[in-house]
Write a structure and sequence with these properties.
alpha+beta, two-stranded antiparallel sheet, 2 strands, elongated
Amino acid sequence: MRGIISQQRVQRADGSGRVLALETLTNTPAVANVIREAKTYMLPGIIQTGKKQGMQLMDDALLDLFRRGLLSEEETYARSEQKQEMRQQLKS
């Protein structure tokens, strides 16, 4: 495995179609170790700290699209995984 990409096609804020939100995971020694030890619950933290390797959480991708004006606040919140954290980010 070299990496994993998860995608969501999300309705654009202006209603003109959809935009792609991507979560990316790159196989690093930390990722391989976590998978080998069946501790996959730790993957979001590894993705968060692996931004330099091109990793990105879905919530970060959604928030970026919202800040660029491509997603509505409601759609961004509805698609998020960490609702409480996303609510705080949307208000700032």
